[in-house]
Task: structure prediction
Amino acid sequence: MPKIPLHIRLFLRRLQRFFMTTVIGGVVVILPISLFIFLVRVVVRFTSQLVRPLIGLLQLKTDTNQWIVDLISFVIVVGLFFLIGLIVRTEFGKRLFQFIEENWLSRLPFYSTLRDTVQQFAGNGKTPFQQVVLVDPFASGILMTGFVAEELTPDLYSIFVPTGPNPTNGFIFHVPLEKIQFVDVKPEDAMRTIIGVGTGSSILFPSIAKKKVLKEQ
Result:
């Protein structure tokens, strides 16, 4: 049996790795969404079983009866979610939910992934590396371009500082809030300055960028 050339074996290995990582990536996205839909359907069906005997007293047609049961069940579930949301907005509710989450919910499979997925759909999720910052981790007065990886506490952040021109490498700093300047710049624009080895960095300093525009005019 002829031996497969090395470059073909390497290509097949890369192709296999690409296929597996892509499939796993798809599962990671679809599974939490499917689980969320499944849980909502379970709650709605459970509520329907409770409502159906009461609606049956109205002696409506079968099709109309089922339609009303589903509608009322859906409204009850939405109202229940709304009520829970109101409770969680209070200080007592936040502490209660945090206690339940830390002691029970966090131990459930896929809970963290499901929670993050729902927060992203609701627009409440904090996506890593979307906030551009200027950071002075050594209090030397030298500012580094970085991205917020995680908010550890209200006063402590994990910051990723990429190196140029290859931004896949870099350093991770856990920096106090007072050493961080939040910059209103798109992540992709800030990343261009890193790939360009500092070219275009004036966008990170609004006052400098404004003076530059006025000078050009």
